[in-house]
Automatic annotation (TrEMBL):
<dbReference type="InterPro" id="IPR034660">
    <property type="entry name" value="DinB/YfiT-like"/>
</dbReference>
<dbReference type="InterPro" id="IPR017517">
    <property type="entry name" value="Maleyloyr_isom"/>
</dbReference>
<dbReference type="InterPro" id="IPR010872">
    <property type="entry name" value="MDMPI_C-term_domain"/>
</dbReference>
<dbReference type="InterPro" id="IPR024344">
    <property type="entry name" value="MDMPI_metal-binding"/>
</dbReference>
<protein>
    <recommendedName>
        <fullName>Maleylpyruvate isomerase family mycothiol-dependent enzyme</fullName>
    </recommendedName>
</protein>
<dbReference type="Pfam" id="PF07398">
    <property type="entry name" value="MDMPI_C"/>
</dbReference>
<dbReference type="Pfam" id="PF11716">
    <property type="entry name" value="MDMPI_N"/>
</dbReference>
<dbReference type="GO" id="GO:0046872">
    <property type="term" value="F:metal ion binding"/>
</dbReference>
<feature type="domain" description="Mycothiol-dependent maleylpyruvate isomerase metal-binding">
    <location>
        <begin position="20"/>
        <end position="158"/>
    </location>
</feature>
<feature type="domain" description="MDMPI C-terminal">
    <location>
        <begin position="177"/>
        <end position="272"/>
    </location>
</feature>
Length: 281
C-alpha cells in the first residue's frame, strides 16, 4: 500500500469543509421535535435519527470506538448490503430509542473530539496511505470522503424535513469538496458503468450554485481532462449541480430544484451514463 501513489489534498481546505458541514448539521438538528427526528429519509429503512446515528458511528470508529453489539442479526435486514452497512446498522439500532436531543449531543461530542484529533495531525500523517472506502489512499483523501458522506446526509436530512438548502448554503466549501470527490470517480462511472465507447468526449455541465464543467475523455480508459483540445464533445449532460450529486449518490432528485436533465450529442451514450451515475457503496 505504501508504494501506491496517493492523492495529496490541502489539509486546511478539507478540514474547513468537514468542520463546516458538521456545524451545518448541528444547526439543522437543533430544536427538532421527536416527530421530526423520525421523519423518513430518502435512504431505505432510515429516518433522520438513523442518518445521524450512522455519522456518529463512523466518527466513533475513526476515534477507535467499536460498534455496539446489535440486538438482532442486522446483516439479514433488507437494506443492509455489506460489512459497512452492518456496522452502520449497529449504531442505528443502538441509538434508535434515545431522545433526539441526546443523539444530537452525541453527534456534537464525537465531532468535537474528531476536530481536535484532525487538527493535530501532521502533514506526514495527513498524507500517509491508509485503507479507505475508495481503496488505499491518503488519510486526507479519506477525510474528503467524510466531507462527501456528511454533506450528502445533510441533504438527506433536509429532504426528510422539507428544508432544502438555499443557494448560498449549497455554494459553501463542503458542497464544492463533495463535487470534487464525485469528479475523482467520474472516469470510472463514464467508462466502466456508463460504457462510453473509445473516442468519447463527455461534457457534464452543472448549473446552479455548484456550477462547473467536467470533461471526460475515453482513450483506452476514461479520465477527467481540462479540455478537449479544441474538439467538440460527443455527448453532453446538463443538469443542476445538486441533482448531479443526488444521482451520483443513488438518491431521488431534490423536489425544490430543477429536475431537468438535458442530453446532447449521442443521446444513447449520454442517457446510459446518467442511468449509471450512482457509484456509492
Amino acid at each position: 500500500m505504501a508504494d501506491r501513489p496517493v492523492t495529496k489534498l490541502d489539509k486546511s481546505e478539507v478540514l474547513a469543509g468537514l468542520f463546516a458541514v458538521w456545524d451545518d448539521i448541528g444547526a439543522l438538528l437543533d430544536g427538532l421535535s421527536e416527530t421530526e427526528w423520525r421523519a423518513v429519509s430518502p435512504l431505505p429503512g432510515w429516518d433522520v435519527k438513523a442518518l445521524v446515528s450512522h455519522m456518529i458511528g463512523t466518527e466513533s470508529f475513526l476515534s477507535g470506538v467499536s460498534a455496539p453489539r446489535p440486538d438482532v442479526d442486522v446483516s439479514a435486514l433488507g437494506h443492509v448490503r455489506n460489512d459497512v452497512g452492518v456496522m452502520n446498522e449497529c449504531w442505528v439500532r443502538h441509538l434508535a430509542g434515545e431522545p433526539g436531543a441526546h443523539v444530537l449531543e452525541r453527534f456534537r461530542a464525537v465531532t468535537d473530539e474528531r476536530r481536535v484529533a484532525l487538527t493535530k495531525l501532521t502533514e506526514e500523517e495527513w498524507n500517509a496511505p491508509t485503507v479507505t472506502p475508495v481503496g488505499p489512499e491518503s488519510y486526507g483523501r479519506f477525510m474528503r470522503v467524510r466531507v462527501f458522506d456528511c454533506w450528502m446526509h445533510e441533504q438527506d436530512i433536509r429532504e426528510a424535513l422539507g428544508r432544502p438548502s438555499a443557494d448560498n448554503e449549497l455554494g459553501g466549501p463542503a458542497g464544492r469538496l463533495s463535487v470534487d470527490e464525485i469528479v475523482s470517480t467520474i472516469g470510472y462511472v463514464v467508462g466502466k458503468r456508463g460504457k462510453a465507447p473509445d473516442g468519447s468526449r463527455i461534457l457534464f455541465e452543472l448549473t446552479g450554485p455548484l456550477a462547473r464543467s467536467i470533461r471526460v475523455v475515453v482513450d483506452g480508459r476514461a479520465q477527467v481532462v481540462d479540455d478537449f483540445g479544441g474538439r467538440e464533445p460527443t455527448a453532453t449532460i446538463r443538469l443542476d449541480g445538486l441533482q448531479f450529486t443526488r444521482l451520483s449518490g443513488g438518491r431521488p432528485m431534490c423536489a425544490a430544484r430543477s429536475q431537468s436533465v438535458e442530453l446532447g450529442g449521442d443521446p444513447e451514450v449520454a442517457s446510459r451514463i446518467v442511468e449509471h451515475l450512482n457509484f456509492v457503496i
